[in-house]
Amino acid sequence: MPERVIELKAKSALNRAPEYMGIRWTLNPYRGCQHGCVYCYARYTHTFFDLNPDEDFTNTIFVKVNIVPLLRRELRRPSWRREPVLIGTATDPYQPLEGRYRLMPGILQALSDFYTPFSIITKNTMILRDADLLARAAQRVPMSVTFSITTVDPALADDLEPDTPPPAQRLRVAQRLRERGVPAGIAIAPIVPGITDGEEHLRAVITAAVEHGLPIAYYGAMRLYDATRPTLFAYLETHYPKLISAYRRGYVRRDPPREYRERLYTRVEKLLKELGATRLEPSRPDPVQPALLPEVEG
């Protein structure tokens, strides 16, 4: 458990997303994350509260306890156009505290009730708890679930993502969700330069996805925000000291150099084609016209 859990009343449930994300709305029931991934870009969000993005990000978790009624109120507005909502962009919605607060069932029900498409990004197998809700939502709105898989090496995953379920468990849970009718797949992200970007490493991740019948949602190189640098560089000092100078040269900005990304993505695309990987598609229920929407209380 984190050292501090702070319950707060959020002013909004839905947040406008940055343009680069390609989606307009995000939703995060928590601030901070217990998973402790050393590369997590979202650590900068704790600086908004004058907190340390290193230890405080994992030890001080904010819980938006009013998010479900707030979301229902926002979705009920006549101005709401049922645009897609991405859940889990800043912190994992199924991090361990969700077992105590159980915010996600109400969120899923609200989105389904108001015919709002959504997608979820997670590393946590707790999502299986909500398999029935997810399966019902898939019959009602376009939706999908993506599991972030950085590596299938359990020892490396334990170093990079110390408080997450092992990758093998994530793959099995994604497979079980698909068996229940939930469009689930994996994201090969973030791809960590010098650590998880080698051909054999990527081949192992894609092969594991294919063997579990899991499509690929997307892939991407690690972005490095200033607030994440102390945590990541402390990790590199211990495990990969020879990479530090290359990181300092390469990460002048948040993204690695374009030339590196182009080579990396060419490598990934080649492997996806070679190994017969498919792409994740959201569920495709029959469209519902606004005039036919039922009145929903709550």
The CATH topology corresponds to TIM Barrel
Largest sheet: 7 strands, mixed
Which CATH C-level class is it? Alpha Beta
Physical arrangement of strands within the biggest beta sheet: 2-3-6-7-8-9-10
The radius of gyration is 19 Å
CATH H-tier superfamily: Aldolase class I
Low-confidence region ranges: none
Describe this structure in words.
- The protein has about 300 residues and is of the alpha/beta class.
- The protein has one domain: TIM Barrel, CATH 3.20.20.70.
- It has eleven helices and ten strands.
- The chain has a seven-stranded mixed β-sheet, with helices on one face. Strands 1-5-4 form a three-stranded mixed β-sheet.
- Strand 2 and strand 3 form a beta hairpin.
- The longest helix has 18 residues.
- The two termini are about 30 Å apart.
Jot down its keywords.
298 residues, three-stranded mixed beta sheet, TIM Barrel, alpha/beta, 11 helices, globular
Condensed summary:
By secondary structure, the chain is an alpha/beta fold. The chain has eleven helices and ten strands.
